[in-house]
Amino acid sequence: MDMFFFNRNELSKSYEEDIEAKLREESGNPLLSVKNQARMGLVSDGLQYECLLQTVAAFPDTSIAVAARIFDSAPRTALVFAPYGLPSRRSRIIQPTFAYLARHGVPAFYSWLERKKYEARMRHWRIEIAGQRPLARSQFS
Fold this sequence. Notes:
By secondary structure, the chain is an alpha/beta fold. The chain is 38% helix and 14% strand. The strands form 3 sheets. It has a two-stranded parallel ribbon with strand order 1-2. The chain has a two-stranded antiparallel ribbon with strand order 3-4. β3 and β4 form a beta hairpin. The chain is globular, with a radius of gyration of 16 Å.
């Protein structure tokens, strides 16, 4: 599970790691990942984004470019931001966001997919590049 936040005043990786360790302990989820998007924008794009929503729109893949905020004061209430729409389990398409392609290009997108092990983790999903024919799995590696 990926959790993210935006704190421009504290950009150290150790700050993220402290939060991550505490949340892993409290939740019992050892796979929890916590990232400060104010720091990650600088790391991945070399940009200082102004808010969390800008970073979500610049995520690499449209299926992960979704943010939700759950409100404590109103039971079962969440605000969802999905600039590329909500991912559909039925369509099972992985495609780069426009912002990521414009900044990094197609080869960087495929490199990102390899680093995240998408081929192994999402076997029944198609990889598509906007304006191009979908690539066969043999072309992925």
